[in-house]
């Protein structure tokens, strides 16, 4: 007897008193609970109408396919074939899902690039609009000459910027600006006469015990190299410019990176803090200069992108007023900018000079500008007249760095052949340091803020005690270049010469100074 529902021999047979049909107990119970009817006749049926049937133990007959070895092999073959077909279908579904995911990721990446480009165009447009608004009081011809519209993120036709003779028109340095520079010069010169060495300055015996305190990997490994360093002395923040096209702001006290500034498309060649208003400047081999504005949350936004040069920008230097700055480029010109507006007031080009500029620095009083050239010449400029007032020859190779002493009359310059010291009162070289072999250039020089020490970077880092024109300049400490590259690219004194920040052709910023225990004993 077979179940009327499943057609198989029931394990627990029951019979309906109404229809007399045989069922599997569990199947008819479920059907009655769901429908309340007989599955065959359709009449109303309850569990009271179901009567169990007493039978002996039922043994299910073995299927014909499992009754013989050939049948079992055939069954296994069918199961294997079904498994392979299922596996093939799953692989096809996986391949389709991967293709869909790859396409979705590509669309997402493209969308991100479009958004980034649109944001960049928006920021540049805002920058130019702000610049145009600041220039509104200027004559219409000048305003038109100095404001370039954007089209797809690029400057409009350069002919709109050009004046007679095919040169860009500049508003020039006004009488009020010259008066401001002169007033600043007079005030600083008067202070310098009363200048004294600060009592907190690190003594010579402390510098003699300087060693590496820390090393910080700030830049990318695929494009290592730090090209420029500057320090915000009031906040103890170190800025580095790298070959990886980024500038990094580093808090030396906490040992943490405050911000990484991206935007340049080529290596950052020069970085400078502005002492006021939390402003930061960066120059790059991509021919641009960027003005970054800090915010309360510690982030920096690019406020202006300056595109007045036609070749690599090699140096940026800030005037003592903190209202103006100068950029020097390999295009044989230097530009004088208003910091608040980002407007190039004048672009100076000497027709007799065909050498690009590789370095630049303001004199501490602000009325003299020093520039180094690719042709081994140091050129001294009067900022008020923009005239070349002196030239210092004698170096071999490009002048890589310039540093004025705080005393106002010493100038240190670095080039391939070493370091030369110049007396600005007599306009002559009074001492030279030939430190390295002919294949190793000197890359950086820096006077500390008191004018007591001079740091030099090449294949190592050397610190000299500043003497005089006649007195010796003694080397008080030689620090090794621990990068393994044999090329220390930049060096900068910290506050009161308490430490040295050094950049090399690896990605690490290194801090040299006194260990904490030695520092305490020195102070005592």
TrEMBL record:
Q: According to the lineage, what is the superkingdom? A: Eukaryota
Q: Can you give the residue ranges of the U-box domain?
A: 1-70
Q: Which InterPro entries match?
A: Prp19, Prp19_cc, RING-Ubox_PRP19, Ubox_domain, WD40/YVTN_repeat-like_dom_sf, WD40_repeat_dom_sf, WD40_rpt, Znf_RING/FYVE/PHD
Q: In which pathway does it act?
A: Protein modification; protein ubiquitination
Q: GO CC annotations?
A: cytoplasm; Prp19 complex; U2-type catalytic step 1 spliceosome
Question: In the record, what terms sit under GO molecular function?
Answer: ubiquitin protein ligase activity
Pfam family name, one: WD40_Prp19
Q: Where in the cell is it found?
A: Nucleus
Q: What is this protein called?
A: Pre-mRNA-processing factor 19
């Amino acid at each position: 007897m077979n179940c009327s529902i499943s057609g198989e021999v029931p394990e627990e047979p029951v019979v309906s008193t109404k229809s007399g049909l045989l069922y599997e107990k569990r199947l008819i119970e479920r059907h009655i609970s769901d429908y309340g009817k007989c599955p065959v006749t359709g009449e109303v049926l309850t569990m009271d109408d179901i009567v169990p049937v007493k039978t002996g133990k039922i043994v299910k007959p073995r299927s014909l396919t499992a009754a013989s070895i050939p049948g079992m092999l055939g069954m296994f073959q069918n199961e294997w074939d079904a498994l392979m077909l299922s596996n093939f279908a799953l692989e096809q579904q996986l391949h389709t899902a991967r293709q869909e995911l790859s396409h979705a990721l590509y669309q997402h990446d493209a969308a991100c690039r479009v958004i980034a480009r649109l944001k960049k165009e928006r920021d540049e447009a805002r920058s130019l609009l702000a610049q145009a608004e600041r220039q509104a009081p200027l004559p219409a011809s000048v305003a038109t000459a100095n404001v370039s519209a954007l089209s797809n993120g690029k400057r409009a036709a350069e002919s709109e910027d050009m004046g007679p003779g095919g040169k860009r028109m500049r508003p020039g340095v006004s009488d009020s600006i010259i008066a401001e520079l002169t007033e600043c010069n007079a005030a600083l010169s008067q202070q310098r006469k009363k200048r004294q060495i600060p009592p907190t300055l690190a003594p010579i015996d402390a510098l003699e015990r300087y060693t590496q305190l820390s090393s910080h990997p700030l830049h990318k490994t695929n494009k290592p190299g730090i090209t420029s360093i500057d320090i915000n002395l009031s906040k103890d923040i170190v800025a580095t410019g790298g070959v990886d096209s980024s500038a990094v702001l580093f808090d030396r006290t906490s040992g943490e990176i405050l911000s990484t500034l991206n935007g340049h498309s080529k290596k950052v060649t020069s970085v400078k803090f502005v002492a006021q208003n939390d402003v930061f400047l960066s120059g790059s081999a991509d021919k641009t200069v960027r003005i970054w504005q800090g915010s309360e949350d510690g982030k920096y936004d690019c406020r202006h992108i300056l595109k007045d040069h036609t070749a690599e920008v090699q140096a940026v230097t800030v005037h003592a007023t903190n209202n103006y700055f100068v950029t020097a480029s390999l295009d044989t010109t230097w530009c004088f900018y208003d910091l608040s507006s980002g407007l190039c007031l004048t672009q100076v080009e000497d027709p007799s000079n065909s050498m690009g500029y590789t370095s630049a620095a303001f004199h501490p009083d602000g009325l003299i500008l020093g520039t180094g050239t690719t042709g081994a010449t140091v050129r001294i400029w009067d900022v008020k007249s923009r005239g070349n007032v002196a030239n210092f020859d004698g170096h071999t190779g490009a002048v890589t760095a310039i540093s004025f002493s705080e005393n106002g009359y010493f100038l240190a310059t670095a080039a391939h052949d070493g370091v030369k010291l110049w007396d600005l009162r007599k306009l002559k070289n009074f001492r030279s340091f030939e430190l390295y072999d002919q294949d190793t250039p000197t890359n950086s020089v820096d006077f500390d803020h008191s004018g007591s020490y001079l740091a030099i970077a090449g294949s190592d880092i050397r610190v000299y005690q500043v003497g005089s024109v006649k007195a010796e300049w003694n080397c008080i400490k030689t620090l090794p270049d621990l990068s393994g590259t044999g090329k220390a690219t930049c060096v900068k004194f910290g506050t009161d010469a308490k430490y040295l920040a050094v950049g090399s052709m690896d990605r690490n910023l290194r801090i040299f100074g006194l260990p904490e225990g030695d520092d305490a004993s020195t102070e005592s």
